[in-house]
Specification:
Layout lengths: L6 H18 L4 H20 L2 H23 L16 H25 L5 H19 L5 H18 L3 H27 L1
Helix pairs in contact: 1-2, 1-7, 2-3, 3-5, 4-5, 5-6, 6-7
Length: 192
């Protein structure tokens, strides 16, 4: 496949970089950008035949609205205190890991047997982990960065394989920035 950048892929990449910058800065505007960017990538990913990721973009849109509400209202239990970065409670980590495996298996089965997807295993994995990672981000759990590290690293190869060069570049940057974000958030958490 010859190298060519899809204009929508490029626009989504620019928005994705803005999103990442705002996420590292803990700026709530990231959720607004994170609600616009999926509209672009629904088209891009559907055309590329990456169906679970395409469906994930619908989730990203609604999760962006939910995340914005959480961050602005500090929604945790009945409290309206602002959210602060915190470690994920260990019992919750185990439940999230189990949920990720169940989602991965279910998505894989659907993609492998009900679609013409040529990448069901990786597409299902990145989608399942993205569901978990985005929910963790809405709660400002530190370890969400580690989930994104796995998602982003796997996504680089997936998007290169499918010829989505802008998105692949974006996820290469995301991979590096997940490490930076984890370190930056851990420092902020220690100072708080």
């Amino acid at each position: 496949m010859p190298f060519a950048l899809d204009p929508l892929d490029l626009l989504g990449t620019v928005l994705g970089l803005a999103y990442l910058y705002l996420e590292i800065k803990e700026n709530a505007w990231m959720w607004v950008v994170g609600s616009v960017m999926p509209m672009i990538y629904i088209v891009v990913l559907y055309r590329a035949g990456i169906y679970a990721d395409c469906a994930m973009e619908v989730y990203y849109f609604f999760a962006g609205l939910y995340g914005l509400a959480c961050w602005l209202r500090g929604r945790r239990s009945a409290s309206s205190a602002p959210l602060h970065i915190q470690p994920t409670p260990r019992p919750l980590l185990w439940r999230l890991a189990l949920l990720a495996v169940v989602l991965w298996g279910g998505l894989y089965a659907f993609l492998a047997y009900c679609t013409d997807s040529r990448v069901p295993l990786v597409d299902a994995l990145t989608t399942a982990l993205s569901v978990i990672g985005l929910w963790m981000l809405s709660r400002k759990y530190l370890e969400q960065w580690l989930v994104w590290l796995v998602v982003d690293g796997c996504s680089v190869g997936l998007y290169l394989y499918k010829g989505l060069y802008g998105r692949s570049l974006l996820y290469a940057v995301y991979t590096a920035m997940a490490i930076y974000g984890f370190v930056a958030w851990r420092r902020r958490m220690a100072r708080a």
